[in-house]
Structures are given as structure tokens and as C-alpha cells.
Amino acid sequence: MTRIELPVLSFLAVLSLLFILPLHLKSRNIPFLFLIAWLLVCNIIQGVDAIVWANNALIRAEGWCDLVTPILYALRVALPAVALCVCRQLEIVSSTLDVSYDPRDKYFTSVFHYFMCLVIPVVYAILHFVVQDRRFVLVQEFGCQAAIFPSAPALFLTWLIPLFLCAIAVFYAGLSFYNYHRRCSFFSQHLNPRSKMTTSMFFRFLGFCLFVVFLTALADIFDMASLIGEFGLLNYTSWTAVHDDDSVLVFFKEDRSKSATIARLRTEVIWWMAPIASFALVATFASTKECWVAGEHFCIAVKKRVIGLFSPKPKFDLPIQ
């Protein structure tokens, strides 16, 4: 039986993310713009994979898999990296420290956000080659996934990096909530001169980031425990030995072996990270007045731009000499 919900939910997540995009474009929230970009790309990839490999596990579109598996793999660290950046900003605006309006400080903050939300995930995806023992893993109904050699390097390069970012994000979130607790009776007055954020938006950001951290940590720990629990920590003898096999590991739906069952379960847990995070993001912000106002302004701007493209250009007659 085809799991039609996989591509349907993936593309529904894409459409729902487009609904809240104007809100974060208007606020120029760099971490959340990167988050939406990562989720858009990953949901599209997973939707396509779910269609192509819905009823089969044929080895095809190898180039596509080589391209998309690092992107899906990078999402593991992109989610907690975004949460860390946002929680850090929440801690700053909720604290008693002076908010700097120096352009150099704003530039540093932007560079930090780009580094965390783009550079770190890209480097994380590149480091995957160290522990990639197969070209990729192909799971029926889900498509291609990154192959991981369960070893000590994988423990640090694959699983502990996201958990480390999650821990830092939780630390900043705890400080943010502590700052709120200290001045909860006049917190909105405290935020007003320091940020355009309302108390409601403050807790929406905080709650969503904690949810993303929990989601990432849960999926990461499950992936680590299931893979190490099945194979143990294998010896990473040499680069050549680990990368000697360039084949594709295929798991069919009909395969009821323990290894195939665990592989499908691991794949499904990781697969659901993108749509769940997407729908959680939309549920957090779609009901806010700011989101609807930003969406309305965005639609008006697009309408004016489209009308301007197709409206006749005014003609100017040259004066007769």
C-alpha cells in the first residue's frame, strides 16, 4: 500500500511555509529566514523522493541522491543552530544589558547568524564524508538517505554536534525565561524600548525553539542509539577501509529482517523532522496579527509589481524641431 501521506504532507508543508514567509521577510529575521529556506528545500526533496520511490527501491537517479543526501543530512544541525541563534537574541533583549545600536555590532550579529545557519550546516555536511561508508542508503517509500558508519568519529561528527548545539540553545532559553521571571510584571515595558517584539511573540519564539531542540535531540538520540545498538561502535581502521564500498544499500518494504526494520524506522524518524518542524513553525506564527498584516502587505506589493510588468508603458513624443 502506497503511503500517500508522505508526499502530500511534504508539499503541504511547503505551501504552509510560504504563508508565514512574509512575516519574517518583513522583520528581516535572518535565522528564521534560513530555517524556512532549509525546511522548504528539505520538504521538496522528501516529497519528490516519496513519489519517485513510492512503490519501489530501484537504484536510479544516483546524481539526484548524491546532491540531496548532504542537504537532508545538514538539516540535523541547521535546526538546532537556528534555535541557538534565536534563543541568544531572546536572552539579549530580555536581559538588563544595554542593547547596542552600533552598526558594527549589528554586522557582527548578522555574520554570526550566517555562520551558524549556513556555514555550520555546510561544514557539517562536508564532514559527513569522513563517516560515509556507502554512496547512500535507499529506503523504499522514503528515497535516498545518508549512509553513516557507526564509529567513534561518527559519534562526534554526526550525533554529538547537534546535541551540543541543542544544549547551548537550552542554556540561552533558560536564561531568557529567567530574565522574564525576574521582571514578569513589567516585562512588556522592558521589551518595548529594546525590541519591536511583544511578550506574546517572545514566548512564541521561545516555545518554538524549545520544541525544535526537543525534536532534534529526540531524533538524533534515537538515530544514534538504534545504529550503535545494532552494530556497536565499529573500529575506524582507515579512510580506505571505510570508503572501500561505493555501493548503494537498499532496503525494501517487504524485507522484514531486523536490520531492514531498524533502517526503515531510523529513516522515518529522521524524515519526519522536516514536516513536523514546518507545521510547528506555521502553527506558532500563522495566527498572529503580525503574520496576517505582513502577508497582506506582501500580496499588495506583489500585485503592484505584476500589474507594473503588464501595464502599457507611457509613450513620450519627441518635440518637433
Automatic annotation (TrEMBL):
InterPro entries: GPCR_STE3. Keywords: G-protein coupled receptor, Membrane, Pheromone response, Receptor, Transducer, Transmembrane, Transmembrane helix. Its main location: membrane. It comes from the Eukaryota. One of its GO terms (molecular function) is mating-type factor pheromone receptor activity. This is GPCR fungal pheromone mating factor. It is found in: Membrane. The chain crosses the membrane at residues 6-25, 32-53, 73-90, 111-131, 159-180, 201-222. CDD domains: 7tmD_STE3 (cd14966). GO terms for cellular component: plasma membrane.
